[in-house]
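Good day; I would like, with your permission, to put a structural problem before you. A protein sequence and the structure tokens that stand for its backbone fold form the material at issue. Thank you for your consideration; the sequence and its tokens are set out here:
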Amino acid sequence: MVPMSYRTVDTSRRVIDLATGILVGLRGCSERDAFAELVAVVQRTGIGLGSIARALVAIAGSSDDSVPYQAEAFDAWADLLAARAVAAAAH
């Protein structure tokens, strides 16, 4: 097994923090609840935490088709993203 580099861990942590922040903003929940939601999606899908976080960040921001698991992330959070789009259109 190849150990993760510090840089990979740091990048994953930042992506997880970004995804957590996205959920906090969309749900209006605590960081703890947002992280628990990410973990629940990991448990339901079997996708790694860093990967599903990266997918959520990709679909919440500009589309980057090279990021895997975007369909799974969209399935998990489509309702929140749709609500955000409706709210943005209303302003």
